TrEMBL record:
Residues 1-15 have a biased composition (Low complexity). InterPro entries: Glyco_hydro/deAcase_b/a-brl (IPR011330), NODB_dom (IPR002509), Polysacc_deacetylase_ArnD (IPR050248). GO terms for molecular function: hydrolase activity, acting on carbon-nitrogen (but not peptide) bonds. Residues 1-20 are annotated as: Disordered. Residues 91-277 form the NodB homology domain. This is Peptidoglycan/xylan/chitin deacetylase, PgdA/CDA1 family. GO terms for biological process: carbohydrate metabolic process. It comes from the Bacteria.
């Protein structure tokens, strides 16, 4: 199958020479340009107060552009963002599972993954992991990866300041590390929404932002066929797929839709000779032990 999805952010192996290690934040050209625009507008206003309408208009436009970039989960304008696996991944895809653990759904997903000999990345919420540590332990014991999805998954995450962001993400880092014995290497923002303060925080914590190539919207859609089609349309090597074990939509028989979707996705991947890997395994050999 050939994908028409653009690979605007294809991380290279060299970008992850030291996974999990704090790195220096380098503002993206978009962020740098926005900062320059702010300085220029302020200078213009001070030099010619009559230009204040133009200066104010420039600032408003800049802020709107920053907000739009943060509301676009697959955007790379604010910094590094995994929307696909690196080229070195070859004929592999990543199945990522958000918002758990869920004591009803997670164990059943693990059984499905075992049946198809597939590996997945679980983006876990810290509070949920603390409530159901046995589920997180089972994820790791069965060969999958646990990554950071914030401590509380608050809906106002994208409008949070830098100190609060750092507290929220660092708390989840500590929670998940305590349970699994391994520090997460990746972070996924709640609903994929963020702001310009996030990337510097992630740099300081040694985390990399990960979004997806496509998602099934399986927390809203109750039709497994529709969800599967969204995930499989154009399925190709290096894709990152998103489904949920937390807050799943339910079908007419009150069963979590994801449990019907996953076999279809895994069978299609096998038919296309695509192997499911974890995000951290895609960085470099041995990264899962980092």
């Amino acid at each position: 199958m050939n994908s028409t999805t653009p690979r605007t952010s294809s991380p290279s192996r060299t970008s992850y020479a030291a996974p999990g290690v704090a790195r220096r934040w380098k503002p993206s050209p978009f962020v740098t340009g926005s900062a320059a625009l702010h300085v220029g507008a302020a200078a213009a206003f001070l030099a010619q107060p009559a230009l204040w309408p133009w200066a104010m208009g420039s600032l408003v436009t800049s802020h709107l552009a920053l907000v739009a970039a943060g509301l676009w989960p697959r955007s790379t304008l604010l910094g590094l963002n995994w929307t696909a696996l690196p080229e070195s991944a070859g004929r592999q895809i990543a199945l990522t599972i958000d918002d758990g653990p869920n004591p009803e759904v997670t164990p059943r997903i693990l059984d499905l993954l075992d049946r198809y000999d597939a590996r997945a990345t679980f983006f876990c919420i810290g509070d949920m992991a603390r409530r159901y540590p046995h589920c997180v332990e089972a994820i790791v014991a069965r060969g999958h990866a646990v990554e950071n999805h914030s401590q509380r998954h608050r809906h106002n995450f994208s409008v949070t300041g830098p100190r609060a962001l750092e507290r929220e993400i660092a708390a989840a880092q500590q929670t998940l590390t305590d349970i699994t014995g391994t520090r997460p290497l990746f972070f996924r923002a709640p609903a994929g929404l963020r702001n310009p303060f996030l990337e510097p925080v992630l740099c300081g914590l040694g985390l990399h932002l990960a979004s997806w190539t496509r998602r099934g919207f399986d927390t809203r859609t109750r039709d497994a066929e529709v969800v599967a089609q969204r995930l499989l349309r154009g399925l190709a090597p290096r894709d990152i797929l998103l489904v949920h074990d937390g807050n799943p939509a339910r079908d007419a028989h009150n069963q979590p839709v994801v449990l019907e979707v996953l076999p279809r996705v895994l069978e299609a991947a096998a038919a296309a000779q695509l192997r499911c890997t974890t995000l951290r395994a895609a960085i470099a050999p041995g990264a899962e032990d980092a």
